[in-house]
Amino acid sequence: MSTGAITPYIDVAQLVLYAFWIFFAGLLIYLHRENKREGYPLESDRSNSRVAVQGWPAVPEPKTYRLRDGRSVSVPRAEAPVPVTGARPVGPWPGAPLQPDGDALASGVGPGSIAPRADVPDTTFEGTDRLVPLRLDPAWGVAHEDTDPRGLDVEGADGRVAGRVVDAWVDRAEALLRYLEVELAGGAGRVLLPMNFARIDRRRVRVASLLGEQIARVPRTRDADRVTLLEEEKVMAFYGAGTLYATAQRQEPLL
């Protein structure tokens, strides 16, 4: 037999190859199982006490993570389904699409869906608030090559002026602007405008996803100088819902 051979049909290289295949398959199964620590078991119209929609491999056993702020989180954990109160199924069959019933922009379905994130502000590695208005941290500002949006009017998709930009919120972890702070017309308060829903030129800031009057209904933050993860989710969802529900025409087929 040649060097490395165990039998005339098996050698060390062959065993190493088989061992690698087994290890790699086990790694894929492990990673796929760990991926189910959040979001599983799935919710289903057919679910009951005897059915767990989780697929294979099954959901892993709970594991507790200690966060740097002293809190601990165990996942997966038992969570009550988030009730959908602003929409109804279009039909009686399982999996029927949900149709907004009432205020479509706040229905929480379709492009306006939200995840129940923690109602606390996101933080940097140092433990400070990650998102802050520029007025609280003068070390940050708008690059001189770009148009400073502060002072510009904010227009909806219909051209109606909803308010004026009074500040911008910087993401100190990523070194970019995340939100514009808009003072609504008529002194109706202030709302946040995500940068990815804003189109800025030298004369105005345009919001294509919402009409001018709808911008005044954007969810507010509890604190004028802080925003929580859950509040961010609700703000983004409101603008996202507008891409489909701002006008009746947007819900119609293109052809």
UniProtKB/TrEMBL annotation:
The keyword Cell membrane does not apply. Pfam families: PRC (PF05239), PRCH (PF03967). The chain crosses the membrane at residues 12-31. The keyword Transmembrane helix applies. Residues 145-209 form the PRC-barrel domain. One of its GO terms (cellular component) is plasma membrane light-harvesting complex. Residues 5-135 form the Photosynthetic reaction centre H subunit N-terminal domain. GO terms for biological process: photosynthesis, light reaction. It comes from the Bacteria. Keywords: Membrane, Transmembrane, Transmembrane helix. NCBIfam families: puhA. This is Photosynthetic reaction center, H subunit. It comes from Piscinibacter sakaiensis (Ideonella sakaiensis).
